[in-house]
């Protein structure tokens, strides 16, 4: 099976940079995704990493190190609207279309 | 461009009642999923489908059933509702691995 670890809560101030880490254990890694979920809303896709390195999309970047079984989501120039839960999800090669989600990190952005 | 549509948005059931949560997508995606999310928790996979006529169990399938007669529709059936099934249910679809999972707005289900 797969397991993921991410912090339960992270706090930061507006304008700052915050990093949300995700470590995973899986038999046969295929890829790592990140999703954002605001209270009461549906998860929305942020990024997908299959290869080592940094992927940048606007203020959000996602990093993967396959050798360390580790990834992170980097949020820059934080805004109040970034307050949400962020989930990492791992895809294993045995079922590469079935993601396993972490428990989520609640990001609280203060003025 | 509707994406993934779930109905109903809210529902209250009595213990022992049955109901079907509807899910339809208009993106011609082969992969579809049902998740439940309890407060403060992540998404737990109930059932998934890789195409019409093919379904399989996820992590927490007990008490639920699904069918996939068409590419577009993936209904979730609760046969004998129990308080432990009080949760928010999300349906999702995906075109292929590495592509985004598209989620519906969720069904908030309470069983009393």
How would you summarize this macromolecular structure in one to three sentences?
By secondary structure, chain A is an all-beta fold.
Please tally the helical runs of chain B, counting DSSP H or I stretches of 4 or more residues.
0
Distance between the termini of chain B: 36 Å
Radius of gyration of chain A: 13 Å
Helical content band of chain A: under 10%
Structural class of chain B: mainly beta
Mean pLDDT of chain B: 94
**Strand/helix succession of chain B:** EEEEEEEEEEE
Give the low-confidence spans of chain B: none
Written overview of the protein:
The complex is a heterodimer of chains A (111) and B (112). Chain A is mostly beta strands and 111 residues long. In chain A, 0% of the residues lie in helices and 63% in strands. Chain A has strands at 3-5, 9-13, 18-25, 29-37, 44-49, 53-57, 60-65, 70-75, 84-92, 95-101, 105-110. In chain A, the strands form two sheets. In chain A, strands 2, 4, 5, 9, 10 and 11 form a six-stranded mixed beta sheet that branches. In chain A, strands 1-3-8-7-6 form a five-stranded antiparallel beta sheet, with no helix packed on it. Chain A is globular and about 45 Å long. The relative contact order of chain A is 0.34. Chain B is mainly beta and 112 residues long. Helix content of chain B is 0%, strand content 51%. In chain B, strands 2, 4, 5, 6, 9, 10 and 11 form a seven-stranded mixed beta sheet that branches. In chain B, strands 1-3-8-7 form a four-stranded antiparallel beta sheet, with no helix packed on it. In chain B, β9 and β10 form a beta hairpin. Chain B is globular. The model of chain B has no long low-confidence stretch (mean pLDDT 94). The A-B interface holds A 30-31, 33, 35, 41-45, 48, 50, 87, 91, 96-104 and B 31, 35, 40-45, 48, 50, 58, 90, 94, 96-106.
